[in-house]
Structure formats: C-alpha cells, structure tokens
Amino acid sequence: MRHLIPLLAVCMLFGCERIRQQDRVLPPLDSLNALAITDLRDRLADRPSDTEAWYGLALSLAMEEDSADALYALTQAMSQELDSVYLPLRAHLHGWAGQTTEALSYAEAYWATHSPNWDLRVAMGKWTAELGAPRTGLLYVNEALNKLPGYGPYLLAKANLFLYHLGDSVQGERWLRLAANTEGGWGEATQQLINVLLASSRSDSVRVMLRELSNQFPAEAMVWQQLATLYEQLGVPDSALMARHRALDLQPGERNQLALANLHRGQRQWDSTRYYAELVLGQDTTSTEAWRVLARMADSRYRYNEALTLYGRILGLDSTDQIAKDELANVQRKVAYLRRQRAQDTLGTSSAQ
C-alpha cells in the first residue's frame, strides 16, 4: 500500500494506457476529496515527514484544481524521498500553475529515463509550443497520435497547436472536427469547434451542426443550450424558446430558467417572465439577475415605481452593479420627465381657468 494513492494519481490524471485500452474505469474520488484532505492534514500535523501522506495530499489538492498547494505538498514529499515516478505529477502541477519552463524540465527528466507516458508527451508538446517552438511541440503530439491514433484528447491538442501557435485555422478546424467526432455527444472539442465557427461568422454552419447533434443525442442538455443561445443571437425567439425549454427539461437549474425569463420578457409574455424569474428566486433570493429581469419587466410595462424598488433591491445586494445603476438612472429620468409633464399640464389647466 506504500505508494498506492500517488500511483493512482499519476495513472488517473496523466495517463495509464493499459487501463485505458482495457476500458477499465477507476472509481471517482471527488466525493472523498474533502474528507481525504482533512484526514491527510491531520496525519501530517502529527507526522510531518510522512512522505505517503504528502503525496496523497498532492493528489487530492490537484483534483480540486488547487495547483499551488498541490505543488507545495508534492515538493515536501519529494524533498524527503525523490522518486522519479512522481515527476509527471510534478510536471503537470507546474504546468497548471503557468510555470511552463519548470513543467517541461520535470517532464523531460522523466521522459529520459522511463517508458513512454503519452499523455505527458502531449503536455510536453503544449508546453514546448508555449515556449516558442510549436513545430517541435507538434512532433511530440504526433508521436502520441502514432501510438494512439484517433484518441480525442490528442486530436484536440493537435488542433490547438495549429489554431493558437502555428496560426493555421484550416488545419486547426480540421483536427477540431476529428476530435469532436470522437466525443459521442457534447465535449470540449465540440465547444471549441462552435467557438471557431462563430468567430468566423459561420452561424449557419453552427446551426446545422447543432441540429445534427440534437438529432443524434436528443438527451444532451448542452446541445440544446447552445442551440437556444444561437437562436437568441440570430433573433429567432420562437426557436430559441423551444430549444431552451428542452434544455430546461434535461437540465433544470438557474441558467435555463433565467434564459427563459429573458426570452419571455422579449416576447412581452409577462406571466411567463414572472414565473421563471420567481422560480430562480425561490432557490436563491440573492440572485441579482432574477431581480433584474423583474425590474426590466416593470420598466417595459411603465410601472416605474415598481422598477425603482426592484433596482434598489439589486443595489442593496450588490452596490457595485453598474448595469443596475445605469438602468436605475434611466428609470429615474423617465419619472422626472413624467413629473415635469404633469406639472406643466396642471399649470396649463390652472391658467386656462
């Protein structure tokens, strides 16, 4: 049991080809992380030289994406017992912390003396590109793809090299499409491909792609969310409402409820607007976005006193909300104008008498 936890760390986070190829899935540790971190810190308080505990803490913190503390824990362990099997973990932690030179140094030290770790090789490609040698980085990624052709994360890494380091959008899009095709639904490559297409003003291509995905994976909430967002941007509210309702059915929550509240407000469907905004507030009374929907609805319905009250509530929750300040000022101008008009009308009536 000596190094079981850190070995699992290296395998789960940074590549264990045998486990991947045999389609075995290690049990998730996320739900145990908070308890594990507490227990390991208690253990280290009593035994600060416990190398295994430091490694375990590094793993748990890495899974919480706390790279700085994870790196510290790993450094403590390696200062007591330098074991090169943990170099990939240290390399990745430096990479996550933005310390690219250090990350590459530890990765190269591991690569020089151990059997290939292809996840690490792909990371080395990324770090090498970031340090100004994208062609060398591409060679590293290609080495990994030669060993695992068609593996989605490696295809995505290659796409990113072309897009962000080699300046070749055609090749970048090509490899992004290949990566997206391996995801079997929604994933990082699919999201990036959509972003690339939208950035090049190809919304029709995105719409076709999302419609195909919604037919292939009708229970994939992210597809419907993206489709709804696209229809909103294209100014097709009926289609946006349909897609957003489908997304809400698949993934209940504040994001889709707020989006529906705003869509119904745009259609001047006041009852539905209030219904979805109040659904959000029923879960979180401090949601400034839900209060904003109601404030804007009141403004649109010429209920200015109600709007003033609601904007005041928003600023009570967040006094730095500049949008609320600007919209409140706009409502106050309308109220002031109406008061002037009323005063002039009253004066005119008095003069006539």
Strand-residue fraction?
under 5%
CATH topology of the domain at 1-114, what is it called? Serine Threonine Protein Phosphatase 5, Tetratricopeptide repeat
What summary fits the major beta sheet? Answer: none
Helix content: over 70%
Arithmetic mean of pLDDT: 84
Tell the overall outline: extended
Write the layout of secondary structure elements.
Layout (H helix, E strand, L loop, with lengths): L3 H11 L2 H5 L11 H14 L4 H13 L3 H14 L6 H10 L3 H12 L6 H13 L3 H14 L4 H13 L4 H13 L6 H12 L3 H14 L4 H14 L2 H14 L3 H13 L3 H14 L4 H13 L3 H14 L4 H31 L1
Quickly describe the structure.
The protein is mainly α and 353 residues long. It has 20 helices and no strands.
Notable characteristics:
single chain, 353 residues, mainly alpha, Serine Threonine Protein Phosphatase 5, Tetratricopeptide repeat, 20 helices, 77% helix, extended, disordered N terminus
Task: Describe, in plain words, how this protein is organized in 3D.
By secondary structure, this protein is mainly α. Among the domains are: 1-114, Tetratricopeptide repeat domain (Serine Threonine Protein Phosphatase 5, Tetratricopeptide repeat), CATH 1.25.40.10; 115-201, Tetratricopeptide repeat domain (Serine Threonine Protein Phosphatase 5, Tetratricopeptide repeat), CATH 1.25.40.10. The chain contains 20 helices and no strands. It has helices at residues 4-14, 17-21, 33-46, 51-63, 67-80, 87-96, 100-111, 118-130, 134-147, 152-164, 169-181, 188-199, 203-216, 221-234, 237-250, 254-266, 270-283, 288-300, 304-317, 322-352. Helix 6 packs antiparallel against helix 7 (100-111), helix 9 runs antiparallel to helix 10 and helix 17 packs antiparallel against helix 18. The longest helix has 31 residues, at 322-352. The protein is extended. It starts with a helix and ends with a helix. Residues 1-29 have low confidence and may be disordered.
